[in-house]
Design brief:
Blueprint (H helix, E strand, L loop, with lengths): L11 E5 L11 H9 L2 E4 L2 H11 L5 E3 L6 H12 L4 E3 L12 H11 L4 E5 L4 H9 L6 E6 L6 H10 L3 E6 L4 H8 L5 E6 L7 E5 L1 H10 L8 E6 L1
Parallel strand pairs: 1-4, 1-5, 2-3, 2-4, 6-7
Antiparallel strand pairs: 7-10, 8-9, 8-10
Helix pairs in contact: 7-8
Length: 231
Amino acid sequence: MDSVVYYSPMSTFYVVATPIGNLEDMTLRAIRILKEVDLILCEDTRVTKRIMDKYGINTLTMSYHSQSSDNKIDKIMEQIAEGKNIALVTDAGTPGISDPGSLLVSKVRETFPDLSIVSIPGPSALTSALSIAGVPTHEFIFLGFMPHKKGRETLFKEIAESERAVVFYESTHRIIKTLESLKNINKKVTLAREITKIYEEVLQGSAESILKTLVENPEKQKGEFVVIVSE
């Protein structure tokens, strides 16, 4: 069955990047847009509230995340159809980069072909890590979050054979397992941890040497990681 296409009277859908750690990384434009729109869609309204409180933003919020129901999406479409200006934010960084924001933007484009969808650029863990890694970045492959099980070993084989830098995200629960999988790959590994936050740190070397550092210093296993594998 074909999707219903609504008419949207001159509304705008903004995709707004927010800080990945340090709240001072909000752009002036992002603050202004979040104040001006009718509704902010948040991955977690409690997380976004910290930004709103800091910058005096009093806009109405609504949660939107990977578990949101079809009814929630229908409500968002109805708001757009009514001419409401809406901003989409994620808990940290740029919406749509390894989060469900891309699915919503796709649905909005499908439902409102003529709607103005505007990017409000800002922080991204991906580009932040690459900017301080000191590795060739004229071309690279981004894998998002590594899968937990299915397809994981296939990806590590692709990383070993890639002539380009490969970048992916990893969690505190799997970083040791990931470094163990990278041990037999003869390439440089850059591990960027907690970018823009208090315990920001970049480790670079072989996967084995970084693994040894994390095992000997368990506190360094905590946080959010960007992993770069390069020549």
